[in-house]
Specification:
This protein is of the alpha/beta class. The protein folds into four domains: about 5-205, P-loop containing nucleotide triphosphate hydrolases (Rossmann fold); about 220-370, Rossmann fold, CATH 3.40.50.300; about 375-435, no CATH class; about 475-555, RRM (RNA recognition motif) domain (Alpha-Beta Plaits). Helices cover about 40% and strands about 15% of the residues. The strands form four sheets. A seven-stranded parallel beta sheet has the order 3-4-2-5-6-1-7, sandwiched between helices. The chain has a seven-stranded parallel beta sheet with strand order 10-11-9-12-13-8-14, with helices on both faces. Helix 2 runs parallel beside helix 3 (about 55-65), helix 6 packs across helix 8 (about 165-175) and helix 20 crosses helix 21. The chain starts with 11 loop residues before the first helix and ends in a 7-residue tail after the last strand. Residues about 455-475 have low confidence and may be disordered. Bound molecules: adenosine monophosphate. Adenosine monophosphate binds next to helix 3. The site of adenosine monophosphate has 11 residues, from helix 3.
């Protein structure tokens, strides 16, 4: 028989509220954590992903143990972002519906500190806070942590990724009556282990589901160039990724400012975040970045501390940081909440040893990419623009009225010419700029580099011309064969099809093997390691109003 909330030993009033919320049986983390936390176990580590019911796993025991009659902060929940902070408070409010006299407050940056101070003074027992704002309140002596008995660290790995390590330690040091520390995390990197060893006593540890050792949702890439070409390389990377929503990191605020000004002059949506800004200026820049009126943010590590923006596609290291931990913080800004992210580093040939060091410590592999040529950039921009053109919303607006006039005006111009003219208007800037663009790659690579590339699979079998694709797949080693419901009837010829699938998936043509195109369908040979990325990028998307279906041809059907 499965466990019930009654069986876990929580207060009857909490059982009532969870029932009302529709919780019938406890989730795995609740089942494992709640009895332990209620039993008086002091320190606890719960390894569980988000969405597994962690909030109730610590929220219900806290509400059970809190002394409602004592009107001072007794429990502190620290979490990485304001969104999470608000979500935790909301859930606790729902859980405590039938318990009178307990209040909970959310304390986070970017909102009026005055109001939060007032709330705290009302006599709350549970404080849910982001680290930065909490430290602010401690320093202003607006919050008294003297009596805090319970500290919960939620999403501890995210907090460390965001550069809050010192803040967390400061908080743990400034809670003298802390009697229990409950740490929840999706992963267990060495830094968290260290924090737990330093501040927790023989914690009871439970794991729910699989625990990732490193953040696998980030692709770590690097480009090698000379110091002289660093800026130009950055520009090319930005141009090669037309939909980029990214943060660029520099070592100094002077670099951040100079690069930001230069890119702004050259027409990019970018602003800088550095220590010289006032809080109001900082909020303004962050506001613009958050609502995506800025596509790029350039920042120093200190200024970017604690940034929590969802949906960052790329983190770019204009220069590699010296410290592995700093690299981890930077890259942790992307690839969050189940999304795929890319962390790009522009490096000098002499810095290869630093990459190796990061690889060793972070246990994550780096991929070397060629800096795109001018032609690559133009092609990429071109396809991006064409996609935009094809997906433009024409359902609103009175276009029908103008169509006859347009038709008359274009009576003697064919479709191809119209397309060319549209492209010319949009691409003039890129074509002119990149017409004679130089190669920014360092072509004279060291032996070690070459070995590295080889070990990354450039020596794979490229049996492009011979045999049927299934045979090549079977014998080529490490290849998958994908089916897709697009073919020559969709207006593709081989080269345009190749370009289309590569552009959609952001993969390089080296990952592909034989392409077999038929009228209605095609089969694509692709390196196994890249197959899922391609399927994710194409399956379910639309092409000319038709839903693309892509799956592994040899696994017997759709995902
Ligand atoms: P969390 O991991 O705490 O963010 O929870 C994820 C979602 O699961 C939230 O929407 C909760 O309300 C919900 N939830 C948590 N525990 C249970 C449960 N025992 N039964 C059903 N839903 C739950």
């Amino acid at each position: 028989m499965s466990t019930t909330f009654e069986g876990l030993g929580i207060d009857e009033r909490l059982i009532r509220s969870t029932k009302e919320l529709g919780y019938e049986t406890p989730t795995a983390i609740q089942e494992q954590a709640i009895p332990v936390l209620l039993s008086g176990t002091k320190d606890f580590i719960g390894l569980a992903q988000t969405g597994t019911g962690k909030t109730a796993a610590f929220g219900l025991p806290l509400l059970h143990i809190i002394d409602a009659a004592a009107k001072y902060p007794q429990a502190l929940i620290v979490c990485p972002t304001r969104e999470l902070c608000l979500q935790i408070v909301k859930e606790i409010e729902l859980f405590k519906k039938y318990i009178t006299g307990v209040s909970v407050v959310a304390v986070y940056g970017g909102a009026s500190i005055g109001l939060q101070i007032k709330d705290i003074k009302r006599g709350v027992q549970i404080v849910v806070a982001t680290p930065g704002r909490l430290i602010d309140l401690i320093e202003r002596k607006a919050i008294n942590l003297e009596q805090i008995q319970y500290v919960v660290l939620d999403e501890a790995d995210e907090m460390l990724n965001m550069g809050f390590k010192e803040d967390i330690e400061f908080i743990l040091k400034n809670t003298p009556k802390r009697d229990s520390t409950w740490l929840f995390s999706a992963t267990m990197p060495p830094e968290i282990r260290k924090v737990s060893q330093r501040y927790m006593k023989e914690p009871k540890e439970v794991t729910v589901g699989k625990v990732n050792t490193a953040n696998k949702s980030i692709d770590h890439q690097f480009y090698v160039t000379t110091a002289m070409h660093r800026y130009e390389t950055l520009k090319r990377i930005i141009d090669f990724n037309p939909g980029i929503y990214g943060i660029i990191f520099t070592r100094t605020k002077m670099d951040a400012q100079e690069i930001s000004e230069r890119l702004t002059r050259e027409g990019y949506d970018i602003d800088a975040l550095h220590g010289d800004l006032t809080q109001a200026q900082r909020d303004k820049v962050m506001g613009q970045f958050r609502d995506k009126s800025l596509q790029l943010l350039i920042a120093t590590d200190v200024a970017a501390r604690g940034i929590d923006v969802q949906g960052i596609t790329h983190v770019i290291n204009y220069e590699l940081p010296d410290d592995v931990e700093v690299y981890t913080h930077r890259s942790g800004r992307t690839g969050r909440a189940g999304n795929q992210g890319i962390c790009i580093s522009i490096i000098h040939a002499k810095e290869m040893y630093k990459l190796n060091q990061i690889e060793r410590i972070n246990k994550s592999a780096f991929h070397k990419l060629d800096i795109p040529s001018g032609k690559d950039v133009c092609r990429k921009q071109f396809f991006h623009f064409m996609d935009k053109l094809l997906s433009a919303d024409i359902s609103h607006g009175d276009y029908e009225t103008y169509v006859p006039m347009l038709a008359e005006k274009f009576a003697n111009v064919d479709k191809e010419e119209v397309l060319k003219r549209v492209a010319a208007m949009e691409f003039d800037r890129f074509l002119k700029y990149y017409e004679n663009a130089e190669d920014l790659n360092i072509r004279d690579r060291s032996k070690k580099d070459r070995e590295r590339e080889r070990s990354q699979g450039n020596d794979r079998v490229r049996d492009q011309g011979r045999g049927d694709s299934r045979k090549a797949y079977k014998t080529g080693g490490g290849y998958s064969r994908l089916f897709v419901n697009l073919g020559t009837k969709d207006g593709f010829y081989k080269a345009s099809f190749l370009q289309f699938i590569l552009d959609m998936s952001d993969l390089r043509k080296e990952v592909l093997g034989k392409i077999d195109m038929k009228d209605m369908n095609s089969w694509i040979e692709i390196e196994q390691s890249a197959a899922q990325q391609m399927i994710r990028a194409l399956d379910g998307k639309n092409y000319k109003g038709r839903r693309i279906r892509m799956n592994d041809a040899d696994s017997g059907g759709r995902r």
